Amino acid sequence: MPGRLCRYCPKTFQSSKYQPAQAVCGDADCQRRRRNDYHRQKIATDPEYRQVCVDSPRKWRGRNPDYWTRYRAKNPASAEQNRARQRQRDEKCRLCRLAKNNSVLDLKRSAKDLATRLRRGTSCKQQLSSRESPCIRGCRPPLDHLAAILQTTTLW
Ligand SMILES: [Zn+2]
Fold it and tell me: How far apart are CA 15 and CA 145, in angstroms?
């Protein structure tokens, strides 16, 4: 009996006699991907399932209100690592908000381009006359500030 090709990897496999329509091999990684895909698809299409996914951890937190306090006390290194990563996420979020408020450029897409243009000293007038991203009057100070941040940050 010829094997079936797995949906996620190049392996062939024999489907289970209990699951004749099985489309994914038994490897742990492939099964994890199958479950994750199912979960995402189910959340996207089933409002009741989505609500259960929201309520379940909420109920658990209600039953275990001091779990994270105890965890942080027991694992100070992990807590400190989490704080450092959260500071990085906060800084990245702050920069993204700053960039959106500036309405000049999308920093995610063109952070390097922005830094290059600012290093070259492209003025607002030049940017307006070119076909590049639109610029607003008086944008130099915030852009210079952003460029300085971009050159020193490792978040990108
Ligand atoms: Zn597989």
Answer: 59
CA distance 50 to 2: 39
Give residue 138 CA to ligand 1 midpoint distance, Å.
56
Q: Tell me, in angstroms, the distance from the centre of ligand 1 to residue 8's CA.
A: 5
Residues 6+ apart with CB under 8 A from 29: 8, 9
Q: How far is the CA of 30 from the centre of ligand 1 (A)?
A: 5
β-bridge mates for residue 4, sequence order: 13
CA distances from 43 to 91, 101, 137 (A): 30, 32, 45
CB 12 within 8 A of CB 4: yes
Quick one: pLDDT at residue 155? Answer: 53
Helix or strand (DSSP H, E) at 13: strand 12-13
Taking the chain (156 residues) in runs of 10, the rounded mean pLDDT of each run is 90 93 96 97 97 96 96 97 97 91 60 63 49 42 60 59
CA 49 – CA 39 distance, rounded (Å): 9
Per DSSP, the three-state class of 110 is helix
Residue 20 phi/psi, 5° resolution? -65, -25
